[in-house]
Amino acid sequence: MTELTARTAQSSILQFLTRRRGRVRADWTDWLTYAYLFLGLAVMFAPVLWVVLSSFKAPVNLAEFPPTFLPYAAETVTVEGFDEPLSLYEVITEDGETRQLAQIRRVGLNAQMIDPANPEAGRLVVPVADAKPVRSILFTWQNYARLLSASGSDLWLFVYNSLFITIVATAITVIMNSMAAFALSKYRFKGNTLALIAILMTLMIPPTVVLVPIYLIVAQLGLVGNLWGVILPTVATPTGVFLLRQYMLTIPDELIEAARMDHASEWRIYWRIILPLSAPALAVVAIFSILSRWNDFLLPLVVLNRREVFTLQLALASFQDENQIHYDQLLAMTTLTALPLAFAFIFLQRYIASGIASTGIK
Amino acid sequence: MRAAAIFSRALAALPARAIEPVMRGAQNILGIKRMPWVFLFPNLAAVLFFSLLPVFINIFYSATGSDRLYPADRPYVGAANYETLFECGSYLDPSTCSRDLFWRALGNTLIFVPVQVAAMIGIALFTAICLNRDIRGRGFFRGIFFFPVMLSPVVVALTWQWILQRNGALNGLLTALGLTPVNWLVFPNSAFFWSVFVTVWAHMGFFTIILLAGLQSIPRDVYEAAKMDAANPWRVFTRITLPMLKPTLLVVFILCVIRSVQTFDELYVLTGGGPGSATILIVQYIYEIGFAIQPRNFGLAAAASLLLGAVLLVFTLIQLRLARGKSYD
Questions:
Q1: B206 vs A271, A342, A362: nearest CB
Q2: Which domains does chain B have, with CATH numbers?
Q3: Is B177 in CB contact (< 8 Å) with chain A?
Q4: What is the pLDDT of residues A108-128, one digit of tens each?
Q5: Torsion (CA) A300, A306, A307, A312 in degrees, nearest 10
Q6: Of B57, B147, B160, the CB nearest to A213
Q7: Furthest-apart CA pair in chain B: how many Å?
Q8: ipTM for the complex shown
């Protein structure tokens, strides 16, 4: 009976997977597709999963080669008469049976062990080669704890710096871009094409090309080593203006005419009519701005030259510059830095994908 | 809809009330005709200040010498910076050049860009075609291929460094298969390979999404007709998919080149341009010469930037021309 249900379940799963619109069975191209997609799943997802899993490993476990997939920790046991917990070993005794013994100490190639179940039996001497540590899967927070204690309040400073830049730059970007887009979509005035061209022309001037002069301007403004030094150069995104303008063109002009009849000021029309109606496009612009500001690297690297103003990305990269790389803390911090975006991704994937597909910009 | 209502109410409550009288005053003084310029002003100012003005400053820097930052302190040197960059005993041997790092960076970029672009577009196209099929879990797989786009370059680089290090997961896997572990980032060729691999891994999702949108805009009935004629999959691909996808492919190609030429973040963290100078690309050279190596040589960095900018400009102009009528009108 159970075997039968199992078999029907199995075949219905198979049917579910292979069922297709219009056709009953999948052909070889479908299998090839699935094979590729699952290979992709492994190549794309495994590295990140690996880092997250590694961040929960104890340093001893991290140093192991070949590495274990899941975090493991040696099991310990408290034995009467010993203050410290002893690590547990699986030992193959001379008569071939396996016993779990606690190690008291190592002496050369031998180890003094004791049976935790029967401590009165006395100490046993076991060759180290015959003993294997007993381990169990254990996710430990100690890397995170050490990261917090080693960097102290610095970590929160980096988080604050990153958040400050991201939030302030995004707010300015959204407001500035939408103001410009409003002017370029809802007014007919002399020079509007010229203004649009001037803004779109910056598409041809990637930030990498003007790195030196931007540094000079930031230095002239006295903003080297200041968070505003990376906010101001990034706020006038041509793509944001363009995206918002295209969206605002679809908002009917009658709404504005009606508001003008009611003596609403131009600013009020912009703030209370145009902005709420542009919410979907504003969301796309905001998401892209958040993403790129949070992930920004080259400009902060050049402008933010003191540790107190480091962003998370800079702090993360600076782990490498030190002579010894603390992989335990590095892994914990990598996970923490990627985490907010992972959440954002789950909720916003659709917006981002449609934004990219419709404009070809990131 | 509810979110929109909340958003609308939030806007009403924001301190914009403080701006409103100011803007109303501006409107009373300037008149409604000039209001668009008021709305344009902040954005235009930022554009002028941080995009257009820098181009001219760049030109000025590239024509002046010394390690001083402020323009007044910099003596005019004409084309000397360009001459220094191009001063070579033999153009085929970087070590005979006065700026051998520039030539190595240029050479690396010239190999990196075609290889990376070809790999990127090939893989992204194949993935997009797979994702465009009538399969289960499409949204899930699309998400899987897309999510690295959102990771920060530093996270991407550190993730792969952790995998490629001597005692890393890849070598663990090789050992399990009975192969010898390799110190991947220590040898120039393997470091270069992984530079391409990691950047493709990180950005292919971006191009896959664009190509997928292109594929989805191909009308279904064309494929139905092909099925009627019992055309095999390869013929369908070469005779229908490729020709109809050509405009999208061109845009993707240009975008991919523009971004590939500017690769910096991932490689700076992953390899630091090393071993030696095996993976140093042109943007990293600009960074090194202008900011990292003391004394800072802003003139050379600006000259190299302008050369990079000229190349990018050509590709961007092509892109704008291609995209005209599509999204830029």
A1: A362
A2: 92-323 (1.10.3720.10)
A3: no
A4: 777 777 777 777 777 777 777
A5: -10
A6: B57
A7: 81
A8: 0.82
